[in-house]
Amino acid sequence: MGPALVLPILAALPLSGTDWRQWGGPARSFAAAAPPLADAWADFGADSSARGGPRELWSRPLGSGHSALVVAGNRAFTMFGDGEREPVVALDARNGETLWSFAYTVRYATRSSAYGGPHATPLVDDEGRVITVGIDAKAHAFDGATGELLWSRDLVVTHGVDLPQSGYAASPVAWGETIVFAGTGGPGPSAIALRRDDGSTAWARHSFLGSHASPRVIEHGGAEHLVLHGTNLLVGLDPATGDLRWRGRVRTDAIDNVSFSPAWDPDTAQLFVSHAYDGKGVQAWRLTGNERQGWALDRTWTNRRLKVQHGNGVLLDGALHAADGESFLVGVDVASGETRYKRRGVPKSTLLAADGKLIALDGDGTLRLVAPGGEELARAKVLGSEAWTAPTLVGRTLYLRDGERAIALELP
């Protein structure tokens, strides 16, 4: 027998129930447990707080990329591009100062500067590890307190992940003692589960063509399901083994769908997917069954008026809300698929739900507060162009970024 593997002891990283430690927040649903928020703002500016608007807590330069900030305790973690390097940084969430940084070389160059830098969002697990995956599918795990590198895996080399034209984009998801990464199919597996402690492969399965959409885990029928949105498929796997449980043929070209992870409504047992480039719009799929009887996935409705580019969908007040990328914010009734509202003048945006309202950041850096019926309550210009990254909200503190900098705002 060889020598025993000695795993590093993690330093203590304070965690809280209000943390936002992964893509989409605590339940991966882009919903925040926020205190009561004001229904109107003054224009953003130096004296914004005195006039009832958002107050800037800090602002700092950041490189290219679209990785959201995740927050654990008083630390925020993100990634960015810096020439041929890709730094992972831990920031003091209170002032934006760098606490530790780790940079590695990237070999992948996108065809457009707008797609530069990493796209996937880091994940902080329950033991304080920070797990990342970069633009060329290099996965790393760090001690969140110290920045010590715990392990790294090149998913292109070890699992044959094929990089699309804009680079790897899907954010990992935790389940049990593993971290699951979406594959791309083709020569490599469609889903890869690595063990959190050492990065070894727990399982790697299937060969359907993947997409940019991030995986998620849902609970239904007494079981947990790992949901992946492939190019032409919506599939559910057993997260322990990777075994296929159910699948539905979406019939679309989802490879250009950068970040719309399937939205899940447990009340109606429906999953929602949307695409901008094929005319299919948003589709709803209902999951039925259980482990004894088996599982089934059936399409319940289609609404062609909501075609999300790279954004996300948020469930609030019985509707799926998203920006279609053509200057419309759209709300679709989850039960019927009927359009509740379609508001003009909202560019391509990412959203989250908080205190019964929507917070939307558009690609031009304008932040909006929106009622569930689509009425705009307030707006503030807070960032520059290519602000394509979904907001993060912890308490009243909103963390945002564009292609050049990151900011933290205190919402009124």
Structural notes for this entry:
It is a single chain. A five-stranded mixed beta sheet has the order 1-27-28-29-30, with no helix packed on it. A four-stranded antiparallel beta sheet has the order 2-33-32-31, with no helix packed on it. A four-stranded antiparallel beta sheet has the order 3-4-5-6, with no helix packed on it. The model has no long low-confidence stretch (mean pLDDT 90). The longest helix is centred in the middle third of the chain and has 5 residues, at 155-159. It starts with 30 loop residues before the first strand and ends with a strand. The chain has 412 residues and is an all-beta fold. It has one domain: Methylamine Dehydrogenase, Chain H (7 Propeller). 1% of the residues lie in helices and 43% in strands.
Main CATH class: Mainly Beta
Helix tally equals 1
Strand order of the largest sheet: 1-27-28-29-30
> Structural class per helix/strand content?
mainly beta
Q: How many separate domains make up the residues?
A: 1
Number of strands: 33
Give the second-level CATH assignment, the architecture.
7 Propeller
Strand content range:
35-45%
Instruction: Give the CATH topology.
Output: Methylamine Dehydrogenase, Chain H
**Broad shape:** globular
